[in-house]
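Loading example: each entry is read as two labelled lines plus one structure line.
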Amino acid sequence: MEKELRLMKGNEAFGEAAIRAGTDGYFGYPITPQSEVMEYLMAEKPHERTGMVVLQAESEVASINMLYGGASCGKKVMTSSSSPGISLMQEGISYMAGAELPCVILNVVRGGPGLGTIQPSQSDYFQSTKGGGHGDYRLITIAPSSVQEMYDSVKLGFDLAFKYRNPVLVLSDGAIGQMMEKVEIDKQVPRHTEEEIRDKYPWATLGRYKGRERNIITSLDLDPARQERHNEALQRKYSEIEKNEVRFEKINCDDAEYIFVAYGTSARICQKSMQLARKKGIKVGILRPITLFPFPYAQVEEMAEQVKGILSVEMSAGQMVEDILLAVKGKTRVEHYGRMGGIIPSPAEVVTALEQKFMKG
Amino acid sequence: MTEEIIIAGFGGQGVLSMGKILAYSGIMQDQEVSWMPSYGPEMRGGTANVTVIISDDRISSPILTEYDTAIILNQQSMDKFEPMVKPGGLLLYDPNGITRHPERKDIRIYKIEANKEAANLGLRKIFNMIVLGGFLKVKPIVELENVIKGLKKSLPERYHHMIPDNEKAITRGLEIVEEIQAV
């Protein structure tokens, strides 16, 4: 069969991928620059294609709690929003992490803090990777840097969410959400039947049947000893994730004397910056984390032993740079270059930053 | 081959859809494409622009500050984007509503009276396709047949009856584009 190619916005690609992945339910609330996800889903009427439910909730708080309900029944559920909306969801996300519920949450990041701006930003890195809600928990965080990767993040997200019974956050931004690129669409995956869910996810609360203990989904346990054991189990799970699920891409790192570490839109900008720098004779490579939790600490450390300096390029005041510093352990110089408030750095200014921070004086 | 293009004008002129058709044409001939609009609290009559990149290779930054080609459809866009054309690059513009014509000496300049022609043809809606035709005359980066395929892909089916008019507009654009300055 010939592959199906379409020109789509990142947000639309995410919506189509949701249907194709056999998602059972999407619950969301509109916010720029993410609104096309639900607009696309509403226009496509996925209920007629696969039986998938798409619902505009009354708020982001309601959406995330609808995910809690759906996920408790072993359903593939997802939501999407942009920064202020994701902040509203944090309580529910923490509950889902505590109750070990799988789901996929898309954040099409805009500049903050507060209502901030509708332009792209990457200032939600801490919130995404360090636990934006309360308690000791982690979200598996995937950072797409193209429309194709936006599309692919849905299937990967659900695979990881169910493998580890953990919420997955897809950390995108306004630029990737709004731009159109070529997307290869894959085959429709059928939604799970009730029987399949029972087989695959014995923890799901689908109604108790003969011969099975009662399933309980909760994040509450008032007995400190049991709660500590639960926390220890969660931490073991996060260690497993760190061991197994690191994803990254290296571009032109073999002969590199400097590297950019960048994800998402910044990684795209840096690819152009790398070309410009190499034209000037500066050997630059890129290490692009694809998962932000787990972060590719070992790969960054390995590069630190090779290069004269690492420039973290983020559309933030410098958040990921803290993870780079942890990885590098003082083995090379690390600097940060970033823009805030919805400003996207130009490829040329990133090269200038590299020169100024590492080659002057 | 990599072609980095900015298309800029007023909202409602079909700037974004022209970019989309160009991008789809690239897909039809198996190239990599990106289409990055300026987005914001904008409205009809405000400025609109889109960066379109068509390439044989993986596309790096979808957001640029210098372009191989600038297609300029109003004065604000002329002021903003004329300085961002790479030396030796191309500037194509519709003189309608332009008060300050391009002044650079190191770029190729073409003009196309697309507004006037669309009015003559009585087809104001396909103004942008006349411009696209003009561009493809100067830089035939995509085959005409792939543009038609791209049109079919990017227009909802209820507008497919307009494809012949669009084709006519592109052909007209090919004919009327004028060279102002070579380098």
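The first strand of chain B starts at residue 2 and ends at 10.
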